[in-house]
Amino acid sequence: MSTGGSSRAGYLLSAAAGAAATVLVHQVVAIGGATAQPAPAATEQAIAPPSPKPPAERPPTSPSKESPPRRAIGQLVTEKEKEISRLQEELRGLRAEAGYTQERIEALEGTPQPWPADIPAGFREKPLEANFQAVLEKHKLGDLVDMECDEFPCIAVVKASEADPQWQQKFQAALKEMSASPEYGGKVGLSMWSNDVQQDDQKTRYTAVSMAPPGTADGEDARTRSGHRARGMLSDATTPQQQRGAP
């Protein structure tokens, strides 16, 4: 019993002491001017290490495509090689066909003939055209409707003044007279092609003629080429403009 009383008395004493301490604290605070507040109890705060800086942002990159497996690459290379081989074979065939076609064209049309370096002046375009005009007018043989000298020799197309069968002989005689001039060297090789056009009851003759020094345009290829050119010029001369597509 005595022990329990002592404990109770001690508890009461402690409580009383606590009340007194509380009053004392409040009094001390009031003496300071009633504006101060009791300092808050200190609390523990862990000091964390500084956080690392975030890494610099890199520009976005497009996702890389995965390379196909080696087997797929090998298959692709094989397919491309086959395609190249096929195209090369096709190209060889086209070249062979083009070569054959070119040979056929040359056989039918001949090859362009270059102008000889030492050709007499009378066979050149300007003097030849002037001499043609003069002889046609002198003998009343017709009109010079075309002359082409891009290749050797020059080729002229004459529209005959009449359809008389004797006209051709008269024309040849006039050309021989013209070729006697020194500017032709005294000798001239002549070639002629004619085309008669019938319109209603009227027939008109067109004659193409080439003049060259003997031996300069006598080869087979040169004759083939001159004939091809002459036929083309006669066709142009005898085809109406509306059929040629001229405005």
Automatic annotation (TrEMBL):
In terms of superkingdom, the source organism counts as Bacteria
| Composition-biased stretches (Pro residues) | 49-62
- Region Disordered: start-end pairs: 36-82, 198-247
Query: Low complexity bias located where?
Result: 36-48
Amino acid composition bias (Polar residues), ranges on this chain: 236-247
Q: What is this protein called?
A: Uncharacterized protein
Q: Which organism is it from?
A: Chondromyces crocatus
Give the source lineage, highest ranks first: Bacteria, Pseudomonadati, Myxococcota, Polyangia, Polyangiales
